[in-house]
């Protein structure tokens, strides 16, 4: 337990994290959609191009139960351990904290001593989270300077409010609900923070009842899904401000604040506009001591024939882009945008966050497009979804499944899971690595975490 | 010989002050972060005084407690008690895996910074580490405190004993302040926080070792004096 130097994967600043060595392994969630007794798993994928098993699964650990629906996950500790207000530099980045969106269990997976043979060391049952925090359906995990933060979609009865609870860094005990005063916040999805401003931001999807049986058309058309951002005092755990993006912009998901703690802006995506099925990216920013937002990117729907579309989209005669994940490079320069509906992954230069420039695009999968890959001519289904960027910003990985009940509505023929990798031109531009196409067969893949950290894991207290 | 004998407690106070100033968890790193957040050296320098005040308050409380205890208990008993307390505290730090208060954020006003420093110093037992020296620092006039009849004598002895304790805290804090300030400015201006990755050795372990060592020394001094 006792180590003499800080964990070598902790970096005081995003600038120094950019110089990290390339990752050699990735951890990827594998989900069994077939309803049989095979459990979901964390797979270990070889991402070292020099290795003979490059692009293959070289290890895995299955969960203890079947039907969990693993989704997002995160590390027990990361660069925020170097924060000067609560320094804990000598803990290890070692455990993956893996909440199951279906069963509400949380698995703690030890990646040492051999990261290709991870082991489950603790299972937190849903009752512990319900009793101690009043939440269910754990989602996003972030390693905070003072504990492990996990968001939850709602209460154990399937309604709201959703919120955040804290796990102890050492024991992984559920310490309780994070919010002291939640203001008008009810729906929950993602969260992250500006450590330099003691500010947390949270977004809105829907309560467990609103999402676990697929998107509810009537609720969507009424604008009942989430469309607001909430700003919190991270230190006092109090709600300070709500920003409504507008009821027509349904489902506000991923939050990507600038990694530089002196910057006070970030990006969020909304999935579908009730006006024209477009998706949007917004920037939130600090202005005169409070927060404001501005829409900076609009991605339109693409026209399509009715017979090419799943039932849910037939009346609209168009494929919505369904932007369901975004990721910001560690230097805050490039924003990656997953268009899960149209089968496109876009790269924007966001050096000026208010004037993004489209600098790259690849097509793969898509509801209508079904585009192939250099190593798998296709047709491929599913589309770019969970996207992860390496610390140096040179490589981008993504998978193609969203969430089983929603997969079934938009890709009713059944998604075949895959994971691909892009190479990034440092001056802008992306292209497929022709040697990296990982086929998960009839299983599906969701979030990816890179060994040693990645662009959506670590937060920093130094610029 | 006599000079060395009277000088070593003060030298120890200075060295312990330097040791505390060296520890990033005691404040210099926070000062650097505040400077980097604002992008100016002035913010680094302005953070140092509140941090030093918090540290002095924490160690000062221990000094006052020792000063008062010196009136009530014999020197031997004080040393034995202090030694036992230090060893117990070191064991507690190991058992709780070096926990400390976590309430503060990154945007702090000077009084919050001072309170943070006070809590960090207290939680780390910075003042306790001074116990052997403080217990040893006993001005000649205070020796017969219990023997001196009357309140006036008592008050004088108490004042004198606490006074030398507070002088000790002032010297200790000055050393801490200078080392902390030097490191903060050098890291901010020249070296950069990148150095943390290599140079931040596990001071928690050294620290708990120092606590235990101080405890042992105090116990031995106490037993010796019996």
Automatic annotation (TrEMBL), chain A:
This is Methanethiol oxidase. Gene3D superfamilies: YVTN repeat-like/Quinoprotein amine dehydrogenase. SUPFAM superfamilies: 3-carboxy-cis,cis-mucoante lactonizing enzyme. It catalyses: methanethiol + O2 + H2O = hydrogen sulfide + formaldehyde + H2O2 + H(+). Pathway: Organosulfur degradation. GO terms for molecular function: methanethiol oxidase activity; selenium binding. It comes from the Bacteria. It holds the Pfam family SBP56. Coiled coil: none annotated. Its EC number is 1.8.3.4. Transmembrane segments: none annotated. InterPro entries: Se-bd, WD40/YVTN_repeat-like_dom_sf. The lineage of its organism: Bacteria, Pseudomonadati, Thermomicrobiota, Thermomicrobia, Thermomicrobiales. Belongs to the selenium-binding protein family.
Automatic annotation (TrEMBL), chain B:
The chain crosses the membrane at residues 12-36, 48-71, 77-95, 115-135, 166-188, 200-225. Keywords: Membrane, Transmembrane, Transmembrane helix. It comes from the Bacteria. This is Uncharacterized protein. It comes from Thermalbibacter longus.
């Amino acid at each position: 337990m006792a180590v003499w130097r800080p964990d070598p994967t902790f970096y005081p600043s995003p600038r120094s994290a950019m110089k990290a060595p390339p990752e050699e392994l990735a951890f990827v969630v594998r989900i069994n959609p077939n309803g049989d007794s095979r459990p979901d798993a964390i797979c270990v994928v070889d991402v070292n191009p020099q290795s003979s098993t490059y692009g293959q699964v070289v290890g895995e650990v299955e969960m203890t139960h079947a039907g969990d629906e693993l989704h997002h996950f995160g590390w027990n500790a990361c660069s925020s351990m170097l924060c000067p207000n609560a320094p804990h530099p000598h803990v290890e980045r070692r455990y993956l904290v893996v909440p199951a969106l279906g069963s509400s269990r949380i698995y703690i997976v030890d990646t040492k001593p051999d990261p290709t043979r991870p082991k489950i060391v603790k299972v937190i049952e849903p009752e512990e989270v319900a009793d101690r925090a009043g939440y269910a359906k754990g989602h996003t995990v972030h390693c905070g300077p003072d504990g492990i933060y996990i968001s939850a979609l709602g209460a154990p009865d399937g309604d709201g409010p959703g919120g955040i609870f804290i796990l102890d860094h050492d024991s992984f005990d559920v310490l309780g609900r994070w919010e002291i005063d939640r203001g008008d916040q009810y729906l929950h999805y993602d969260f992250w923070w500006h450590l330099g401003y003691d500010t947390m931001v949270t977004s809105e999807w829907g309560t467990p009842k609103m999402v676990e049986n697929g998107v509810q058309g009537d609720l969507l058309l009424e604008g009942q899904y989430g469309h607001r951002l909430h700003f919190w005092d991270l230190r006092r755990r109090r709600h300070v401000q709500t920003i409504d993006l507008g009821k027509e912009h349904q489902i506000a998901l991923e939050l990507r604040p600038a990694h530089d703690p002196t910057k006070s802006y970030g990006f969020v995506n909304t999935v579908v506009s009730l006006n024209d099925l477009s998706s949007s990216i917004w920037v939130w920013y600090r202005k005169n001591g409070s927060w404001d937002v501005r829409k900076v990117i609009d991605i339109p729907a693409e026209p399509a024939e009715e017979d090419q579309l799943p039932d849910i989209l037939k009346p609209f005669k168009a494929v919505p882009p369904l932007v369901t994940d975004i990721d910001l490079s560690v230097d805050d320069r490039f924003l990656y945008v997953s268009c899960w509906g149209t089968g496109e992954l876009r790269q924007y230069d966001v050096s000026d966050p208010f004037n993004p420039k489209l600098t790259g695009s690849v097509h793969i999968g898509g509801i209508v497009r079904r585009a192939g890959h250099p190593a798998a001519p296709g047709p491929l289904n599913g589309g770019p979804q969970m996207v992860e960027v390496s610390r140096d910003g040179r490589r981008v990985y993504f998978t193609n499944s969203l969430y089983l009940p929603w997969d079934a509505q938009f890709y009713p023929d059944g998604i075949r899971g895959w994971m691909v990798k892009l190479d990034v031109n440092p001056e802008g531009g992306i292209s497929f690595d022709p040697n990296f196409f990982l086929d998960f067969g009839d299983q599906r893949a969701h979030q990816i975490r890179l060994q040693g950290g990645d662009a959506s894991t670590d937060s920093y207290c130094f610029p | 010989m006599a000079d060395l004998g009277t000088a070593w407690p003060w030298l120890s106070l200075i060295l312990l002050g330097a040791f505390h100033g060296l520890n990033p968890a005691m404040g210099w790193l926070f000062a650097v972060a505040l400077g980097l957040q604002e992008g100016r050296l002035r913010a680094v320098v302005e953070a140092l005084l509140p941090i030093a005040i918090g540290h002095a308050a924490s160690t000062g409380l221990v000094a006052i407690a020792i000063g008062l205890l010196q009136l009530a208990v014999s020197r031997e008993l004080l040393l034995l008690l202090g030694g036992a307390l230090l060893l117990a505290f070191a064991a507690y730090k190991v058992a709780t895996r070096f926990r400390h208060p976590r309430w503060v954020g990154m945007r702090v006003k000077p009084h919050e910074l001072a309170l943070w420093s006070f809590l960090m110093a207290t939680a780390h037992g910075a003042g306790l580490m001074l116990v052997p020296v403080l217990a040893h620092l006993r001005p000649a006039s205070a020796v017969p405190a219990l023997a001196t009849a009357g309140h006036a004598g008592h008050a004088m002895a108490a004042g004198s004993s606490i006074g030398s304790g507070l002088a000790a805290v002032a010297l200790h804090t000055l050393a801490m302040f200078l080392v902390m300030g030097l490191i903060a400015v050098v890291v901010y201006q020249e070296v950069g926080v990148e150095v943390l990755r290599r140079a931040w050795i596990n001071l928690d372990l050294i620290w708990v070792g120092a606590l235990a060592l101080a405890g042992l020394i105090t116990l031995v001094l106490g037993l010796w004096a019996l």
